[in-house]
Amino acid sequence: MTPPGSRIPLSDARDPDVGVNSLQSYELSGDEHFSLSVQVGADGEKRPELVLAKALDREEAAFHELVLRAIDGGEPARTGTARIRVSVLDANDNAPVFSQAVYAVRVPEDVPVGSTLLTLSATDADEGINANVKYSLKKATDLASEIFYVDPETGTIRLLRSLDFEEDDSHELGVQARDSGELFDTATVSISVTDVNDNAPEISVRSALNEISEDAPPGTVVALLHVQDRDSGANGEVRCSLNLNGVMFDLAASPLSSILSLCYWMSMC
């Protein structure tokens, strides 16, 4: 994060000769990120400074190798060289990035409590403590917090309580990955709950005759029954039958498939 234009003093060269045969100039080579500035003191001493010419990025280059050359004025000129290695220290300038913008998973409603449903993954291009990522639910509702748990260290999402397809067949969570600073990324987790045959059919009597005359004609409706199964699809399809010793009654479906008529004598139903 050091701004361009910043100066770093360098050790100056020593030449025991005097006059034109002593140190006359410096040259720098090796990298476009740095340039050389030479300050001349009141005593005529030349002091080299390294000038940052271009912003640094540790993720692009963690080290910069330079060569500083000191030249005297003799014929032929003599030179001395120093190798300079600049190590770029990391700054927290990169936000975490999720591997996916949307995580989608399908789970049966009878998945055991404590099961891991999926694992989030986010990376940070920084290093050390600046690359440590913590996971959390973003503005989670009370219901989501009661059902799902996000491990802040590993990013695994675990089930805290049983799912119920009939209660809610899908859940959408906002999740966040934050580094040690204030940089973060967000993603969406879509959890689809699939139905399991975990509900028994329920029968209720809507209406029924307390008595029936012995000369009631065949086809007389004795009772209206309501049959319902809270499961869906094939799991919610119900077959009904009568368990009687004698064939005196029969079942007939009404225009509404969940309503059955219990009829006296099967021939008219």
Walk me through the structure.
The chain is mainly β. The chain is built from 1 helix and 19 strands. Keywords: Calcium, Cell adhesion, Cell membrane, Glycoprotein, Membrane, Repeat, Signal, Transmembrane, Transmembrane helix. It is a single-pass type I membrane protein. One of its GO terms (cellular component) is plasma membrane. Residues 2-98, 99-203 form the Cadherin domain.
Keywords:
269 residues; four-stranded mixed β-sheet; four-stranded antiparallel β-sheet; 1 helix; 19 strands
Report the portion of residues in β strands: 35-45%
> Helical content, roughly?
under 10%
Distance between the termini: 87 Å
Order of helices and strands: EEEEEEEEEEEHEEEEEEEE
How is the main sheet built? 4 strands, mixed
- Multimeric state: single chain
Rg (C-alpha, Å): 41 Å
Number of helices: 1
Poorly predicted residue ranges: none
Strand order of the largest sheet: 8-15-14-11
How many strand elements? 19
Overall mean pLDDT: 86
The general outline is rod-shaped
